[in-house]
Design brief:
- The longest helix is centred in the C-terminal third of the chain and has 16 residues.
- This protein folds into two domains: 101 residues, 60s Ribosomal Protein L30, Chain: A (2-Layer Sandwich); 162 residues, 3-Layer(aba) Sandwich (Alpha/beta knot), CATH 3.40.1280.
- With 278 residues, it is an alpha/beta fold.
- The N and C termini lie far apart (43 Å).
- Helix 6 packs parallel to helix 10.
- Strands 8-7-6-11-9-12-10 form a seven-stranded parallel β-sheet. A five-stranded mixed β-sheet has the order 1-4-3-5-2, with helices on both faces.
- It contains ten helices and twelve strands.
Length: 278
């Protein structure tokens, strides 16, 4: 809903409570979870957050340097509650980049609700169990966005979805793809059972070097949940039992496995290829 008044402008001159709040959001997972808010900087991520209608509570910027037309336009049309003006040295200290972004945004976390994922007849959802690397998680989110995935589910204890490193690794795709965190595979099983009644058959496909068949031999045109295992341990026994099929990626050379982000991208490319065949 459009606000009737302009954002309030708050001038910061020292490392006061407002500064420390934003700085702690950048560094501390516990703070982000408690406040349901996270830290975003960079042109593309902020553009994507605005394009996909994420709620931005506040913008921070330096009053000591002229702003670009891009930054001015965003601030002029801002629906944020507050704009924080900082001296350059504090803005640079707050930034997580070697070359600080003009704008920093404090963005509200959406609810972890599977209803955020749109349901389609050719539904494609990636399930990542216990991801441990922000880079891998962010790269997979980017591949999901590029290759037609409708949403991602993260289960179990994992790296923080809202870590600035995760968001940076997505290069903006973070805001385009619904990503929902669930405590375990048990909650996922409940949702899959509901979807089977709504959509008919749902195929749950895992990936492992000892699969039932190679990925090109499996028909991915039906509604699919693609299970991606933990980087170190792979799929858990509970997920393997849940799978209807486990596929493998054929490899040559001495390598016996692939990085999880690389493997997921290959799997998603094959799914996209099959679904675009005449």
């Amino acid at each position: 809903m459009k606000q009737s008044s302009r954002p309030r402008v708050v001038k910061i001159y020292s490392e006061n409570n407002d500064f420390q709040y934003a700085e702690t959001l950048r560094r501390k997972r516990e703070k982000r979870l408690r406040q349901r808010e996270f830290f975003v900087e960079g042109v593309r991520p902020i553009n994507q957050a605005l394009q996909y209608h994420w709620h931005i509570r506040a913008f921070l910027y330096s009053r000591d340097k002229p702003l670009s037309d891009w930054a001015k336009n965003i601030l002029n049309s801002s629906q944020a509650e507050a704009h924080y003006e900082l001296p350059w040295h504090l803005h640079a200290k707050l930034s997580n980049k070697s070359e600080p972004s003009e704008l920093i945004a404090l963005v509200t976390m959406p609810d972890d609700d599977v209803s955020r994922i749109p349901l389609k007849e050719d539904l494609l959802i990636v399930v990542f169990d216990r991801p441990s690397s922000p880079g891998n998680l962010g790269t997979i989110i980017r591949s999901c966005d590029a290759l037609g995935v409708d949403g991602m589910i993260i289960t179990g204890h994992s790296v923080d979805l809202y870590d600035p490193e995760t968001i940076s690794a997505t290069t903006g795709s973070f805001f385009a793809l619904p990503v929902v965190r669930l405590p375990s595979q048990k909650e996922l099983v409940t949702w899959i059972d509901i979807l089977k009644h709504q959509l008919g058959h749902i195929h749950v496909v895992g990936s492992d070097e000892k699969g039932d068949c190679e990925l090109t031999e499996h028909n991915f045109k039906q509604p699919t949940f693609l299970i991606v295992g933990n980087e170190t341990w792979g799929m858990s026994a509970a997920y393997r039992e849940l799978c209807d099929t486990v596929v493998s990626i054929p490899m040559a050379g001495s390598a016996t496995s692939l990085n999880v982000a690389c493997a997921t991208s290959i799997l998603l490319y094959e799914i996209s290829r099959q679904r675009h065949l005449p």
